[in-house]
Amino acid sequence: xxxxxxxxxxxxxxxxxxxxxxxxxxxxxxxxxxxxxxxxxxxxxxxxxxxxxxxxxxxxxxxxxxxxxxxxxxxxxxxxxxxxxxxxxxxxxxxxxxxxxxxxxxxxxxxxxxxxxxxxxxxxxxxxxxxxxxxxxxxxxxxxxxxxxxxxxxxxxxxxxxxxxxxxxxxxxxxxxxxxxxxxxxxxxxxxxxxxxxxxxxxxxxxxxxxxxxxxxxxxxxxxxxxxxxxxxxxxxxxxxxxxxxxxxxxxxxxxxxxxxxxxxxxxxxxxxxxxxxxxxxxxxxxxxxxxxxxxxxxxxxxxxxxxxxxxxxxxxxxxxxxxxxxxxxxxxxxxxxxxxxxxxxxxxxxxxxxxxxxxxxxxxxxxxxxxxxxxxxxxxxxxxxxxxxxxxxxxxxxxxxxxxxxxxxxxxxxxxxxxxxxxxxxxxxxxxxxxxxxxxxxxxxxxxxxxxxxxxxxxxxxxxxxxxxxxx
Length: 473
Known about the structure:
Blueprint: H1 2-22, H2 32-46, H3 49-55, H4 60-95, H5 99-106, H6 110-141, H7 176-191, E1 199-204, H8 211-219, H9 222-225, E2 232-239, H10 244-252, H11 265-276, E3 281-288, H12 293-301, E4 311-316, H13 319-324, E5 329-332, H14 338-349, H15 355-369, H16 376-386, H17 392-400, H18 407-422, H19 426-434, H20 446-456, E6 462-463, E7 466-467
Parallel strand pairs: 1-4, 1-5, 2-3, 3-4
Antiparallel strand pairs: 6-7
Helix pairs in contact: 1-2, 1-4, 2-6, 4-6, 7-8, 10-11, 14-15, 14-16, 15-17, 16-18
Keywords: ATP-binding, Leucine-rich repeat, Nucleotide-binding, Plant defense, Repeat
Domain Disease resistance N-terminal: 10-92
Organism: Coffea arabica (Arabian coffee)
């Protein structure tokens, strides 16, 4: 994971040089310029790593470039370990001199001096070689036109799907309890006339768990939409990035009225304030990602004068986002049962097929449904895949295969989960990815896993005023 190890190498490089000077151990002389060049190159590369990691799965050449970079950083890590060990060894030899060493301190030993030369030369040569490799890697990066940290993602990123409030409830299975619980919470908050301020309810769950579907069910529920309950109901797909102007315009839009054309945020927020002030409203903000107060607060402040009982419903994958938007109640998405996953799958897979044809596949299909792990998106995707499998053997092949390696499945499933993965810090990505070393269905001992993360350098103590790792598991 280059995103994690590159900044680590930069830190350790500086530490080793300082340590060598501080301990007055001259093991590797004349490499200050080489080390400085390596640090400079790594700092330049560090700025584009987020974009490179984002693109590696869709662009094989980017993946190869990152693999080369990772190989170089692992070589540098080995050299630094060796260098640190030699410094430590030399320091111990100096602080615990024997009588023979005391004599040698007065009469410099040519043999001792010559013995250190290979060490100095070996480490210096390795550093020089790595510097040359990094030079080539940096030149190769030019062809990819990476975006530096803080840039705007390009079209190669996985696209987030823009959602709407429209839904066919006949195609939804296993969400009756979730719908009742969420509706009761919304109506309870809305009926609390004495409660101050607009209430924020967050629906939190993994990608593909059905958060948007649940919000759609609620939004279209007759008991929620009745005129004497909410004067205004609005649905806005927020997604990422959190574009304040687009969100404000979408919130103000209504059928038969043109979208506000202001390019400035201030008049849009003022119009929001005027439109929602004194009215009891239900505003659904679907697929929220931002944790930044500076983006969320102005929007929230423009809605705070809604009438008592107003509710903002947020769907998000992150509890941190739920906290950032000031959630007053959190609804955690439940996983579907295997039988509900099978109902979703068979509706799609058996569409237009004869009863006799369907019965032959049913027992296999129920076993495939178990692979969905309670995620409705997985059930829909696998149902679409099975729809074009005509024979029992083809269904059996799907059951026996590694589902995640099927191109048809990964095209729909993987982007949804990759979006959540891409939001993790480099340290968290490394911790998550490391779990792939365990066999499928292996029971992982948490304490052992954390020790392994520490041994790999993914979890490290805080120092110099900032976290050099996750600071914890």
